[in-house]
Amino acid sequence: MNLLLLVPDGVGVRNFFLGDFLSRAGEKGEVQVLHVVPEELLAPYRAKLNGLAGKVHWQPFISQRDEYLSFTLRNALAYAQMRWADTQAMRYNLRLPMTGTWRTQAARRAARLIGSAAASSRGIQLLDHWHCSAVARLPEVDHYRRLFKETKPSVLFCSHQRPPVIIPPVLAARSLGIPTATFIFSWDNLTSKGRIAAPFDHYLVWSEHMRGELLRYYPDVVPEQVHIVGTPQFDAYADDSLLWPRVEFFKRINADPSRPLLCYSGGDAGTCPEDQEHVRALMNLVRAGRIDNRPQVLLRPAPVDNGSRYREVCRDYPELIYAQPTWLHTVPGDWTRVIPLGDDLQFLANLTHHADLNINLASTMTLDFALHNKPVVNIAFDVASPPPFGKPLWEYYYKFEHYRPVVELGAARFARSPEELVEHVNAYLKDPSLDSDNRRRLVELEVSTPLGRSGERIIEVLETIAR
Asked: Torsion over CA of 249, 251, 256 and 258, rounded to 10 degrees?
């Protein structure tokens, strides 16, 4: 197998560079990697390859010029998908205000009109065809076509289905008859984001549940094109060699191993704008002695958050343990260019293993902790009035399609007030086994394959596709 691997963002780096995926792929043949990592940051990823470094060849994505027609059609396709699928999250995204220059806003307005008119299965397929035809004429496609004629990949695999930068290489590969596949990287992408950026021949998903979502929202995809592989996102949790003893981990974070540790997992500033105030509310409750056993609180922002909005709460509560993820913001403001370093993977594996409880606002971290059978309390009360999204958090995030199973299975408890936050945290600290079966059912639904071998399963599928 001669693998062409597209890694257009930092989460792809985390999933496919930090584990053993590249080494295993290198054992099967040559690997050509198109990536967004600055050259000066590549050394640690290359070092992990040991004797296989010569089998893996690195090539940066070229800069992409967004022409008016392709930009408008791409956004029209996203609007059409969201109007047709009509999920709770998509309805919210359609109401977001337009930003950018007057030209960008004009293009988005045109895209909304076109998307509204094409919001049907047939209309979306027609728009998809027009969009691909517009992009196929760009010089970037010719560049990748020449590159692939030289390197002769037998299969293209994309680590993330959303970034627009993947469209030219995917279309170039398809024009050369190279089979293409993509990985659906997160549990919310199919129901809360726009259209998959490019047409693929195959789709790799976490579970039977995600497979059903893909077939529902993409009726042009047939079951034979969808492969259940799990996700390398959680594979590190099956690697006991990454774990430190509890005493060592607590020493590293300057905490007391004899006291409980509560982990507050932040979201990004756009979707969780009140995180810093929720942390303040939690610290008030801990300081007032309303939460039992004198717990310590560790705050871990989202990797795409630079953490600046937490400065005041960290200043006011010096006992708060602040743990900024070791992801580098190589292009400030661009979420695709936030790149993880290897030690973050080990730190997160230890945090989810040693923390006693997690608190978050409808985050994927609910799954991370459920995989360790650790209790989770979801924040469901607003601080600001009126609330930032025009309706209470409970009526907003906890109605999103991807998060409904958490609510319906009872896999977490929901604090609709500071008083309920105290009640739920104290109940879990007293008996961490509460809701254990519900957490297990959530994991079985969302991540239906055993941890630790997702990379192997992906390679096996890609080998079959390549043949």
From this structure: 50
